[in-house]
Structures are given as C-alpha cells and as structure tokens.
C-alpha cells in the first residue's frame, strides 16, 4: 500500500547562498499588464563587486552556484534574472587580483578553482527555470561566457562585449569557444575569441547573442541611443537597431560630449526584463522548461564535451602565460596592462625558458623598469 501524501515539502537546497559579493532575492512576478501575482516570484541573482567591475572571486563563484540551485528548486519562482550591480559592468570575468596574487604559479589550486567555475556554468545551463541575463554594463571575458550560458540576454545599449583571454594570458575556454560558434557561426566566433576586440551592444544584437537592447542614456529627460555608435536601420524611436559601428573623428568627440552630459538610467532595461518574465509567466511551466532544455542542448553538449580538458589546460597554463598575463594586468598601470608580446615571441623563438627571468622581462615597463 502506497504511503499517504504529506503536506510537508522536502528541502532540496544544498545550502543558502552566502557571500558579500552575491545577492539573491525574490521579486514579485507580474502579468504583462503590470499586475503583481500573489505567491509567485522571479529570482534575481546579483553579482555585487562593483569596485572590481563585478568580477567574481572564489567565494562569489560558490555563492552563484548555490543561488542558481536555490532558484531552480524554488517552487514559487517562474524565471531567473542574472545581473550585476550598478551600471558599469555585468561582469568582467574572474577576479584578476585573486588570480595574480594567489592562483598564478599554483596549477593545482587553480584546477580546483576551475572545478567551481565549471560548476557555476553548469548550474546556469541546468537551471529548472528560464534564465535571463540582464546586461547592465560591460560583459567581458568570463563575464561574457557566463552571460552566454543564460537562455536570454537583454542589454542596455552602452554595454560593451568581448573576450580577453589571448591578450591577458588565457584562452576563452570557459564557454566562449563552446557557445559562440553555436550562436554566431565559426568566423565571427574566431574573430571575437582570437582578436579580443570589444564590440557594442548594437553589434552584439546584430550578431545574435542578445534578445533585445534598450537605451540607457538620458539627456534632458529623454532616452537616446548610444551616441558613440553610428546606428543604421533603426527599428524604433529609441534607436534600437540591427547593426551599429563605432563613430570616428568629430562624430566620436560629439558623442563623448553627449555621453558626459547625460545620465545612465536602467529603467527601460528593467522594464524589458520584467516584460520578458511576464510573457513566460503565461505559459505552461513544464512545457516551457522542456523547450528551454532542448534549445540549450547545442551549448550544453559542447560544454560537457570540453570542460574537463579545458580545466586541465587552464591549470597548467598558470605556470606560464597566465601567470605573466594576470600579473601584468594586476600590477601594470591603467593604460599599460599587457605584456610585451613581441619580446615574448622573440625570447621564445630564441629558446628561452619560462623558468628564469622571462616572466619579469616582458612585464609592463611602468611597473618593472
């Protein structure tokens, strides 16, 4: 005889998320007409390390994992919003100060850290609720990777996007080399990952890695499109476009002046995120998550196929290029945070070993001589 049902529900959480750099909250869900729905919520997960552009420390990574588990398990949560505090950065990736001062030269330690990072990406890809990246500012490096792991991305149009690995001693194998070919095709993925040239939210929308963009600059009480981007083929009164390229010359100077005159206001971004959550509220929950899971498969399959060998390579790289690159970024001046790439290649071509003075020789001159 089957055991009788009980009204006492099991707690499936591992632990409550706890870190000074991560906030977890539940906000009341609303219908498309803006009415609050009693008893239903959207979970908001915030990276809150604004002094370091919301880069994630080891403790923050742990808290993000637990926050996604909590949101995934919450019976009263409809959607999950993943975002950063402030208006400067969604996330700029791993905390380079921690990388340079602790993990550099310690491959075994970094291997354990990368287990946590991999679990963070997997927690996003395995969440039992749709995940929306609210891109409130820069989404660079590992920040771009965890953003692309989300199911939807909505950005304010002053945000910048891109990878940084080969410029700073790593490879973008925390998701970018897995996700970008699936999302934008091989050629654009190659350019983004190898050249490390940042691009605008308008271009990100055109490439297909954003669901939508909204203006964030308010001048004289009115929202205007990013004045640093030359927009083409406007869609609406706010300048939402299919493509945009950076301005040059006098137009760039005028754009910077306009940017300095205005104020950043994320009200339209929040409204767009709430609108997206409200649309998903009016769907069958199991049918929705099954659809999401199927659409995640190309990213998830690539990620699961590669994440362990990526972890091993990244750990060993902490003895050579990562150690040099993260040290340069952490200790260099604001305008000089890259190693001397030409000298590095010359010394390696001459047969120099990484065990010796090579590391110091290629550091930025502002700090090392």
Q: How would you characterize the overall build of this protein?
A:
By secondary structure, this protein is an alpha/beta fold. It folds into two domains: 22-216 and 266-317, 2-enoyl-CoA Hydratase, Chain A, domain 1; 335-368, no CATH class. Helices cover 46% and strands 20% of the residues. It has helices at 58-73, 96-103, 107-125, 142-148, 165-168, 176-184, 186-195, 201-207, 249-261, 267-281, 285-317, 321-331, 341-349, 358-361, 365-368; strands spanning 22-30, 36-47, 77-84, 89-91, 131-135, 138-140, 152-156, 160-162, 199-200, 212-214, 217-219, 222-224, 229-234, 241-246, 263-264. A six-stranded mixed sheet has the order 1-2-3-5-7-10, sandwiched between helices. A hairpin with a 6-residue loop joins strand 13 (229-234) and strand 14. The longest helix has 33 residues, at 285-317. It is globular, with a radius of gyration of 22 Å.
